[in-house]
Amino acid sequence: MFEELRANPRLRMGLALALALVLFVVLNDWRAATGERARAVGREQARLEATAERARDTAWTQRAQEARAARAQFEASLWQAGSVGAAEALFVDWMNREMGAAKVNNLNVIAASLPGGNAPGQVTSGPTLPDGTALMRLSVSYEFAPGVVERVLDRLAQTNRYLVVESLTVRRRPLARVEMVVSSLARPTQDKTAAAEQKGAAR
C-alpha cells in the first residue's frame, strides 16, 4: 500500500483530495452545530432575561391592588341589610334625612321598585347587576323653589353611596314641584345566604 502511494503520484493526490473533502464536511458540520447551539443558548438567555424583567415589573401587582381597592369601595357603597325590604327602608330613611338637610318643602319619598323585579340574579331588561346585589328605586318629589334643585343634587353628589338620579322633572302645574327617580344598590345578606343554601340543597 505504501509502496503504491510512493510510486503513484495520482493515488497520493486522490487520497489527499479525499481527506480534504472529509475534513471540509466535518468542519462544516461542526460549524453548523456550534452555530445552532449558540442560537439555542441565545434564545434561552433572552427567555430568562424576559422572565426576570417580568418578575421585576410590579405594574401587574399594582393593578391588582387597585382592582381590590375599587371592589372594596364599591361594596362599601352598597346598602347592607338582611333583605331587600330592609335595605329599601334604610334607603328611604337616608333620603328623607338628605332632603331635610337640603331644606326642601313638602317632601314625599316612596319606594318605586317594581314588585319582584329586583331579586338577586334575576334577568331583567336593564343593565346586568353584580352577583348578590338588588336594584332599589325611590320616587322623590318636593316643592320647587329657586336653588332647591341645585342644593339637592349637590347633597346627593357628596354621598359615598352608589347612587344614580335616573330622571328629574320640574312640573309647573297644578303646583310647582320637582319629581325625581333615584336608584341605588343593596346587598341583602339574608337572601344571599338563603340562595346559597338552596343551591347546596339542589346539589
What does this structure look like?
- The structure is a single chain.
- Residues 115-125 and 197-203 have low confidence and may be disordered.
- The chain is an alpha+beta fold.
- It has 6 helices and 5 strands; from the N terminus they run αααβαββαββα.
- Strands 1, 2, 3, 4 and 5 form a 5-stranded mixed beta sheet that branches.
- It has helices spanning 2-7, 9-56, 59-76, 84-101, 148-157, 189-202; strands at 79-81, 108-111, 134-143, 163-171, 177-188.
Present the secondary structure layout.
Elements: H1 2-7, H2 9-56, H3 59-76, E1 79-81, H4 84-101, E2 108-111, E3 134-143, H5 148-157, E4 163-171, E5 177-188, H6 189-202
Parallel strand pairs: 1-5
Antiparallel strand pairs: 2-3, 3-5, 4-5
How many E strands? 5
Number of helices: 6
Spell the H/E element sequence.
HHHEHEEHEEH
Strand content: 15-25%
Helix content class: 55-70%
| Rg calculated over all Cα atoms | 40 Å
Structural class: alpha+beta
Question: What are the defining features of this structure?
Answer:
5-stranded mixed beta sheet, 56% helix, 203 residues, 6 helices, disordered C terminus, single chain, alpha+beta
